[in-house]
Specification:
mainly alpha; two-stranded antiparallel sheet
């Protein structure tokens, strides 16, 4: 049996289009899907930790008296000793509407 005949053949029918809901997502049950879930859980945990650091160190009261804030420089100095990923985590937390701030979108 030759090597070329042992490889799976893909047809045009099995290829997804960008408009398909599953486009860009790994197939369920694969190692790639499992790694993706594990990475998502780890990042979610880091985002929760970041939000806890913000809450514990917030010194600014919002106009609504309910929200609280922290200056980026202060947050960076506090959180940088925990992780050097503070900017990426802030952007991800904003994507999930867990934090609000002006700036890069």
């Amino acid at each position: 049996m030759s090597q070329s005949s042992s490889k799976p053949k893909f047809s045009q029918e099995s290829q997804l289009k960008r408009s398909d809901a599953e486009y860009g997502k790994p197939q369920e049950g694969t190692k790639t899907a499992a790694r993706g879930r594990k990475a998502h859980q780890a990042i979610s945990g880091e985002i929760v930790e970041l939000c806890q650091v913000i809450e514990a160190n917030a010194r600014i009261k919002g106009e609504d008296r309910m929200s609280r804030g922290i200056l980026f420089g202060d947050l960076f100095n506090i959180y940088n000793s925990i992780s050097n990923k503070v900017v990426g985590l802030l952007l991800r937390a904003r994507k999930y509407k867990l934090v609000q701030f002006e700036g890069e979108t």
